[in-house]
Design goal:
The complex is a heterodimer of chains A (399) and B (282).
Chain A (H helix, E strand, L loop, with lengths): L17 H25 L3 H4 L8 E9 L2 E8 L5 E8 L7 E3 L3 E2 L4 E7 L8 E7 L4 E6 L10 H23 L2 H5 L3 H31 L7 H24 L4 H29 L7 H19 L9 H12 L1 H11 L3 H29 L7 H18 L5
Antiparallel strand pairs in A: 1-2, 2-6, 3-5, 3-7, 4-6, 7-8
Chain B lengths: L4 H4 L7 E4 L5 E17 L2 E8 L8 E4 L3 E8 L8 E2 L23 E7 L4 E6 L5 H6 L3 E7 L8 E10 L9 E4 L5 H4 L2 E4 L4 E7 L6 E6 L4 E5 L8 E3 L1 E5 L3 E6 L5 E6 L3 H4 L4 E7 L4
Parallel strand pairs in B: 2-5, 4-9, 10-13, 12-20
Antiparallel strand pairs in B: 1-2, 2-3, 5-7, 6-8, 8-9, 10-11, 13-18, 14-17, 14-19, 15-16, 15-18, 19-20
The chains are: A alpha+beta (399), B mainly beta (282).
Bound molecules: copper (II) ion.
Chain lengths: 399, 282
Amino acid sequence: MTSERVSALPAAPSRPGGARLWLLGIYPLALIALLVLLVLRLGPLGVFQAAFPPVEDLTITRVRLTPGQFQVHVTNGGADPVTIAQVLVDEAYWEHTVAPQRTIPRLGSATVTIPYPWVEGEAHEIVLVTATGLTFSHTVEVAAPSPQPTRAFLLTFTLLGVYVGVLPVFLGMLWFPFLRALGRRWIHFFLALTAGLLVFLGVDALEEALATAAALPTAYHGTALVAVGTLGAVMLLVVAGRLAARRGPRPLVVAYLIALGIGLHNLGEGLAIGAAFNLGEVALGAFLVIGFMLHNTTEGLGIVAPLARTPPGVGHLVLLGLVAGVPTIQGAWLGGFTYSPVLAALFLALGAGAIFQVVYEIARLMAADAAEGLATALNAGGFVLGLLIMYVTGLLVAV
Amino acid sequence: MGFDPSAYLTRFDWGRARPLGGGGSLREYQVVAYDREIEIAPGVFFPAWTFNGTVPGPTLRAREGDRLRIRFINAGTHPHTMHFHGIHTAEMDGVPGIGAGEVAPGRSTVYEFRAEPFGLHLYHCHAVPLKRHIHKGLYGVFIIDPAGGRPPARELVMVLNAFDTNFDGENEVYAVNTVAFHYMRHPIRVRRGELVRIYLVNMTEFDPINSIHIHANFFHVYRTGTRLRTDEFTDTIMLAQGERAILEMRFPYRGRYMFHAHVSEFTELGWMGFFEVTDDDL
Ligand SMILES: [Cu+2]
């Protein structure tokens, strides 16, 4: 059998089939297994075990406050099991229980429950002392009851999501009639502006993802996790875009991709808001909410910009707005009730990747549509203006 | 065998005594330094350097004027010495570079001097870096009784000490006699009305001072124990690093009485306990 395509690789002289192919694929694995066995039996592993005390690596992932009690969630990210022997709160040994058990295996988790008369609005320091005397600490900056998944809090987070995510996106989409009345060059200006907005969001999300990843237990390899999320999102959207292109007009496909990218970004934003609420930081809140509203209004503009010359039906516009805005609500729920730094880093990375992919799609859309190329002064101005708008509105939302 | 702070309170090492001509005794002691992991709070282990396997080391006791011969063997992993507080020659001072100097692992030496002055003293390793050799656990109490003795009493040795478990130059665990909260769980039993004599030595590293406060009572203070008349009648005293005092008191009522550092921070980090005053025979 010969391939008809010209390949850069030299064609194999003859291709084995069936069982023989499987064998060729598997025998290096078998050799590796043998090698591992040999190293475990005879190798120099003793060097790593004998002389050095274990380096313990506990990470406090979350502290929940209920009346008269702390609940501390810890993960063991080190190479060896770690035993929690004692607990200090505000420099005093304190009674506590550990579930499921005091000794936490590698990558295992435990919950330390500490009855403690904490004081609302004040800071408290919690220190876990391991059996070898090492200490791992966490400071509750502003003590306040953690939100419970009650109807009231669910409603609060939903409203928060609607205010900062859904409504602003739809408001931004109200620019649609205005865009439709513009000529091609000005539409391109607004597309470039959208690209500017998105690049800013992407960089922001990536930074946020890396910062969250840095706080993860080392065994999770946070930075690598962010790389997987970002590049994974890019590849996913490439495939999604290809599949969708067979069905609908290109501008509509790009608009959906933008909405999806922004939706993922808003999920991360919701996570941050929910988590901030959880940490008792949203007392600063009203200002933050207004900041997010202004910030996210520009996202609505970005979604409709590609559609100016081929207007879709109202149904599509509503759906686009929902795709971009509603994830803010889910994000707020996740962040508020079950904040997991691993998931947060992953979602933020996905959002970043999606956004970069969308910028690429916008550029392709503009290139296909423009005779004079992308690099016009007007486009450059639009792009920079997009960055600046995000920078200025972003100043309002430093969580 | 684990270290029992309750037994430590009343355990004295008088050495192997032989009468000397002229009334006094020759006392011979053996002290071995070695590394050992000790439990300093329930579940918390500390890689200590010890004299005879415990922190504090054995309470060495003699009578004023006795001839003392302390055979010191270093079975540890670092050079160590024994430096005694008291009056002796430079060669017997147990500091680096003088006399035997630092005793290398696997080597030994003999410290020999007259027991003077009477009082409550201490001994500790003086190898460098000094701070580390002390806070790792190389210290103990050294009591020289006055020639005429002291009135009979229930005698208790209490060493104020602390441990830096994460090596950040601050203590995480404070205690009397090493184990945090031990005497909360196992109160010190004394009889109502009997004379109680506490040999109190402050070996806390990193924190310049420590203190003791005994509830619902007052005690007589004999600073350093070097005079037989009392200096003070109080319920709280403060000791700097290496300072010590003998306290004498009687408990007039039955019940449980707390004692703790009046440095409140230390209290909740392990330095507190109870006296249990009873009418029972002990
Ligand atoms: Cu030493």
